[in-house]
Design a protein that fits this description.
This protein has about 500 residues and is α+β, with helices and mostly antiparallel strands. Helix 8 crosses helix 9. It is globular.
Length: about 500
């Protein structure tokens, strides 16, 4: 009797006559298996960011008593509320790869299935101060980028799900629609290292928030990122002492290949509607899930594909491989945040710097090799020389800034950094910490060894002893960066 529990599109992968004489049915079986393997790999890449985002809903239970700092390190909150940090993410943490040391964060993972949420923007941000609220769907595609770069007005926006019907409520600037029920709102406020800048960054972040529409009242709220950061919550059996003794205990990937298909099914069940660019893949994913459930042999094959695809994804997403050439030996993903149907690139981004801003807001340049194509190693000394007038052209009037960040081969900060630096850029220039050459150029020195030369020492970005990688962030890029006309300088080995 045929197995009619699975839908036709899943059952069709079973050859009608697999046991023909003289192995006559083997070729058909192999052809069907090859197609399923190919399809499963594509669906894995497509669904990887969704599983990653959905895994973050676990924080709702951990932080059920209110927003705070999960494990004392990351912004966390109940559903449809924003949690905050009031300082840079600790360079000692070993969970979030490629963190920045440019902004402080507010983060909210929302569920729009039952009601919308209020997104509050600041009304009192100083001119030229950078802030943004990045809103991304389940798949990490940026829905909207509010902030200083786009001249967003202060006030309240309503973020709703795909099934919401209604008009813009009184007192709201605009209604924003997410194509998925689960979405993410991430606030960023620029912060330099001075006491004045920290106070300003916190004052702006305290005007950024998320809360359920049912709790709305006339007027704007004032949030408290400092109190939130002090509320450090540790899910049992984790304790502060355990993390301090072994930071690597947090090196747990948010996506686990061995249970990927079960997690993907949960994510899709919670998000029955998706963006048009993702809709064609939902049926393919559902077909694979039905086929996987229909027979242990198909389950084994599809599960194995997830293991292989994960390994290949992590290899392709390394800094010395991901993206395309952007000149000067640097690479970039040209469609960052606005992924469309680039499911592979989106999955790569989820591995190395998930929730990148829309590329119009911020362009990210990466590299893991020197000018001769050799992997970067901390035992050598490297120079990055910007010619006179050749620093990254960002729009300072709208809050633009740039930074060059140093990461180890696993894309974490060096800790402890011998001079306290994990990046160099606008912050250091504004503080007059860097020394220009006589011809007006600026040379940054990268090495695990402290330079003897005073100028090189002033411009030193410490590297780990082993392999390392670099990332240049350009926030509020000008047309020269967006078009590719501006090219970053090479990284040359100096010793």
């Amino acid at each position: 009797m045929p197995d009619t529990a699975a839908p036709y599109v899943a059952r069709q992968f079973n050859a009608a006559h697999p046991h023909l004489a003289n192995s006559g049915g083997v070729a058909a079986q192999l052809a069907n298996q090859a197609y399923v393997e190919a399809l499963a790999k594509v669906v894995f890449y497509w669904g990887y960011p969704a599983v990653d985002t959905f895994s973050r809903t676990d924080a709702w239970e951990v932080m059920k008593d209110g927003p705070g700092a999960t494990m004392g390190l990351f912004p966390g909150s109940p559903k449809n509320v924003m949690g905050y940090l009031d300082d840079y993410m600790s360079p000692a943490q070993r969970k979030v790869v490629t963190p920045n040391s440019d902004t402080i964060y507010g983060v909210s993972v929302v569920d729009l299935a039952d009601e919308g949420v209020v997104i509050q923007t600041p009304t009192d941000a100083p001119p030229g101060h950078y802030w943004t609220i990045q809103i991304a769907d389940l798949f990490t595609t940026v829905i909207r980028q509010l902030g200083s770069a786009s001249g967003t007005p202060g006030g309240k926006f309503l973020l709703v799900g795909p099934d919401w019907r209604g008009e813009t409520p009184e007192g709201f600037v605009e209604v924003l629609r997410s194509p998925t029920n689960i979405a993410l709102a991430m606030g960023r406020s620029f912060m330099a290292r001075s006491a004045e800048s920290k106070a300003q960054a916190r004052a702006v972040l305290n005007q950024i928030g998320v809360y359920p529409l049912s709790q709305d009242a006339p007027g704007l709220r004032v949030f408290d990122c400092e109190a939130c950061a002090r509320n450090k919550v540790y899910p049992p059996p984790i304790t502060p002492e355990i993390i301090a003794a072994d930071p690597d205990i947090l090196r747990i990937r948010p996506v686990h290949a061995e249970r990927f298909w079960d997690d993907l099914e949960k994510a899709l069940d919670a998000n029955p509607k998706v963006a048009p660019d993702d809709a064609p893949m939902v049926d393919q994913a559902r077909t694979l899930l039905a086929l996987r459930a229909s027979d242990p042999a198909w389950k084994a094959l599809i599960d194995r594909v997830a293991l292989v695809a994960e390994s290949e994804l992590f290899e392709s997403a390394k800094y010395h491989q991901v993206g395309v050439g952007a000149g000067g030996g640097w690479q970039r993903q040209e469609n960052g945040g606005a992924w469309g149907t680039d499911w592979f690139g989106r999955a790569q981004a989820a591995v190395i710097y998930i929730y990148v801003n829309d590329f119009h807001e911020a362009v990210y340049f990466v590299r893991g090799t020197d000018a001769k194509g050799a992997l970067l190693q901390g035992r050598y000394t490297y120079a990055v020389t910007f010619p006179k007038g050749g620093l990254p052209p960002v729009d300072r009037a709208r809050g633009g800034f740039w930074s060059l960040s140093m990461y180890d081969q696993d894309y974490y900060f060096l800790t402890p950094s011998p001079n306290g630096r994990n990046n160099l850029g606008t912050v250091n220039l504004d503080a007059d910490e860097l020394v220009f050459n006589a011809d007006g150029s600026l040379t940054l020195t990268l090495s695990s060894r402290e330079p003897a030369d005073p100028t090189a020492r002033a411009n030193w970005l410490p590297a780990p002893a082993g392999q390392f990688a670099l990332l240049v962030r350009t926030y509020v890029p000008t047309e020269a960066i967006l078009s590719g006309a501006y090219v970053l300088p090479e990284v040359t080995r100096a010793g």
